[in-house]
């Protein structure tokens, strides 16, 4: 009977693993043009789940030493693969040079993806043939060695970390770990499932109460970390309903068909989550000076920007003739351009024809936030381990941008950048007649302040009137007056940007996670309500379930994919 159960499961796993491998090769070659990502994404998840199920059945029902070892090898490689794919996407996101991004894909992401499938094929084949079946009935020996006991304790402690990570995912946790957990939850689901089975195999006592408890705990973690993925279809429907309600039922018909062919075809692609989209078709110049302070509070400050441009100028590209200004976050006291401002987004937009400027501004030394300072130290350590041409060190606020700056000063620095942009637009091929502004967190707040002030026409002494703002896209913007903003200080309209909203304010599209422990989702709702209060309906908010702060960092994560699908269409509608 057990033979009959495992043989068809092994055959199905063999087919699904092979299909996922073939589709992976096709997806790498085709990129965003790949078809049937949903079908093969489901096949991939089924393959990974069946591989784990075979390990479990072989363990419970007994199998030969060789097959047991292959099962253990699969678990270890599966755990490593999930880490490699997540790490590879992080390295790719921190690289200015396309070469470094490609190396991260080929030496971290792709090996992780194919290794877990190859070992899955081998295990399925052995299981189907039932080599040495029932030779080792009952699992591992009852008296494990001291080395096994130490390994078991270590793995159990790692499993306990999953409970804390699950809490971070489900609660509005106001800590830095939330940045990683919600968008990496799918990797964590399979990581902790494999870890649980490894613990059970080492313990070697099928059916005992402790094994059952550990197994149920691992299953619970697996389900919890699958939740973000399972909630995406509902989030996609809500996003579509919101987009139609704000921008009209007929919005798809208003898109230019010539440009539409370059957009993301799907709201979410599972293969892209695992394999990523290497960015092509862009060039970047970084660390270009646009302001050097010589007196007063600006004494010694140096502000730089990066510019991302399309590799080829094609009139049918969606972003042709449009400029984007991107503003980084960091609680107004930390952060920087580059890595800290979602470089993958900048690269993608440039490849779509936009000219993207990623600019610095003065960061305040008037307050200290322990969590941000801890992030500073952590990233400083990580930066030393990264390739030289990556920009991860940019997430650490450089000394030349820090000073006793108020919100007035930050806004003034961004105004200086608008003067520079107007003066040098021709040098970079930037259009001034169609400009969008975007940024996250504190950068989302400054994005909002900048876009509304420029469009309102009452702050021309700060922002150059030669720029026409067509819309803005804040990510989890910290728009509410908070003790932090009040401590930094500034004009009332910068502390409470809702004061700047007018009946003719430009349209906006807001990214907001329901699980954000740093910027509550009610902040975005309040801002949209302010638009409605003044008779302006052109503000849409896309709410994302369990999405934490900075949950767009993984460029091909489920949250960023869904939002980007609407973001690029939003800009196409209003440019």
Structure in a nutshell:
The chain is an alpha/beta fold and 575 residues long.
What does this structure look like?
With 575 residues, the chain is an alpha/beta fold. 54% of the residues lie in helices and 10% in strands. It is built from 18 helices and 10 strands. It has an 8-stranded mixed β-sheet, with helices on both faces. The longest helix is centred in the middle third of the chain and has 39 residues, at 209-247. Residues 135-142 and 371-395 have low confidence and may be disordered.
Estimate what percentage of residues fall within beta strands. 5-15%
Q: What would you report as the Rg, rounded to the nearest angstrom?
A: 26 Å
User: What's the overall geometry?
Assistant: elongated
Query: Roughly what is the average pLDDT, rounded to an integer?
Result: 90
Helix percent band: 40-55%
Strand order, largest beta sheet: 1-2-4-3-7-8-9-10
Largest sheet: 8 strands, mixed
Number of strands: 10
Termini separation: 65 Å
Q: Output the helix-strand order.
A: HHHHHHHHHHEEEHEEHEHEHEHHEHEH
**Low-confidence segments:** 135-142, 371-395
Structural class: alpha/beta
Number of helices: 18
Number of domains: 2
